[in-house]
Amino acid sequence: MISTATPRRPAVFHRAALVGRHVSPGIAEPLSRLASFLETRGIEVVIEAETARSTGIAAYPIASAEEFAAAADVAVVVGGDGTMLSIARRLAPYDVPLIGINQGRLGFLTDIPITRLEKTLEPMLAGHYVEERRTLLAAEVVRSDGSRETALALNDVVLNRGGGGTMIDCAVEINGRFVYAMRADGIIVATPTGSTAYALSAGGPILDPTIAAFALVPVAPHALTHRPVAIADTATITLTLERGPDAALHCDAQAHFGLVEGERVTVRRAQHAARFLHPEDHDYFAMLREKLHWSETPERLRGR
Known about the structure:
Layout: E1 6-7, E2 15-20, H1 28-39, E3 44-48, H2 49-55, E4 62-63, H3 65-68, E5 74-79, H4 81-91, E6 97-102, E7 112-113, H5 117-125, E8 129-142, E9 148-153, E10 156-160, E11 168-174, E12 177-184, E13 186-190, H6 198-201, E14 213-219, E15 229-232, E16 237-243, E17 248-251, E18 255-258, E19 264-279, H7 284-292, H8 298-302
Parallel strand pairs: 2-3, 2-5, 3-4, 5-6, 6-7, 6-19
Antiparallel strand pairs: 1-8, 8-9, 8-19, 10-13, 10-17, 11-12, 11-16, 13-14, 14-15, 16-19, 17-18
């Protein structure tokens, strides 16, 4: 699945679901402001159930993500990228588009500043936006007893050492063919979306979302010849834990699985993709310049 960003003709949004960061203090005010803004434009509003419980907003219908997915034309997420990751995975099978309002820090996925909420949403509600689809990963843990557990990830799937501090030994296969065995703190399988997250901190490449690829990024490998590799997103990656008494698998740092030696993990492109709507002037590389301070001098950064 290649991410695409294309302008769309004017569309009418009849129903919008609002999702907020559940533990964020002060989230109720911008959510209420957003709900009122949407209502004045004739759009029905429903509040995601956990958001309603944590904020106390009770003036609108309440529904779980799975309940509103069948009826909502769009979901608007107020928070940070962690909030967006969680709801994007849940809504991907229902093909519900998402708009992200950034109340967090970097905001690669929640790209609309909360200070420009109304000004930016106004033209988007009139159909002036670009849409892109982002690939998800499907991870399957195959236990030593033959049982299996699954999870989705929009950013990354990470196999790494636990709190004991012992490096892990991991064997890597791609499409059933042995690639290498590695001793390291861990290994990351990242989508283009996740290439600006943990994988970037571990020295991985930034992948343009229009590239149909995954990044395979070692974390602090013992042998410095183990380098990040970009592979086709049609590949199936198998990670086998050969040694590591307290190793674990993490999907988007939100779903966690303890592993024992001999267990393996398969990672492949998920069946469904996440849909994102952006302002019409959205520019991926302009966003990178802003978020990663590529245009800044050290003097200007110190002045922030």
